[in-house]
Amino acid sequence: MKPSPSSFWSACCALAVLLPVATLTTSAHAGCGASAPTRLNGLFYGPAAGNAYVTVLAHRGLWGRYNPDNHAVAENSRSAVVSAADHCMDAMELDVKMTQDGVPVLMHDYNLGRTTNIWTRVSGGRKYSPENGTGTNDTVSSHTAQFVGQLRLLTPDRSTTTGDFVPTVAAAITAARSHPNDAPIVFDVKTADAARAVSRVANQLAQKPTDTMAMKVNATLYKSQAAFHADVPNMRGIPVFVTNNLSRINVAQVRDAWAANSNNVAIEANVKSVNGLLQGELLDWAKGRKSPVGTFNAIPDYPGGGGRFYDSDGHCCYKLEDKYVTYNGRKETATTEATGTT
Description:
Oligomer: single chain
Order of helices and strands: EHEHEEHEEHEHEHEHEHEEEEEH
CATH superfamily: Phosphatidylinositol (PI) phosphodiesterase
Structural class: alpha/beta
Number of helices: 9
Shape: globular
Distance between the termini: 5 Å
Helix content: 10-25%
Number of strands: 15
Strand content: 15-25%
Largest sheet: 9 strands, mixed
């Protein structure tokens, strides 16, 4: 998939609108020639180091078939964090879930069956099958950090375990900050308790987290930048607008509340088709302000092919074209033809 230069960072102003985030290939980007604060600023103001077109984020770290050194590196692993820094990514985006005792760990799914060897750690456990939904698939929140931290991550094809255990957010920050090619981290957080927990950990491990870390949160969770900063005063926030939440918020109101009195805001908008449901309220609005606009292409994470994605509980699978949303009498679907990607 190739990003279109004309749709990428168009100006250096108040707000960036990003489309569905996924791993992008390691094409031209700022890389190790720029400091972590400079690269993080590039996400909010436009790419660093004079590159006018592409900012490269390693989604879930640099893992799987996108890792040029080792295709067996697991997603959201310490190895994926280190590899992202090794290969000079402009930033990395890491997913966060909470354990039973309130410790933030790196995990995309709410459940542990798809990505870990949890079946070896519980009585009567069986390896989880994403295809038929059978086997041990406990939630992250049903176990303590000590238990979760003893689970080994699986290779992307799920054929065997890796040498990586499920890392805490603290371990990920430490790995990134101690690397000579220190890369910014964008945490993808789904709940307020996780947002507060990540903020606390960042304060313990970084002198000025706002220079090297940011946090993605659902626009339905924090409806203004002020509300976000009441819980997370030490990071920049990126509200995420997805079409299946449109009926729960006033998009224009929340958008304006995030952008008010600030020239340091990025917004991620889930736009699944040409002239989609968020086109006017977010993309056209941003372009009218001559704000930076970025396009990210969703890359399927199911290793079996067919353009399929795992669901958030780890079971297989869906295609973007299977997802339909109706809002204000209009209907939107996601297809590669509609988005115009190649």
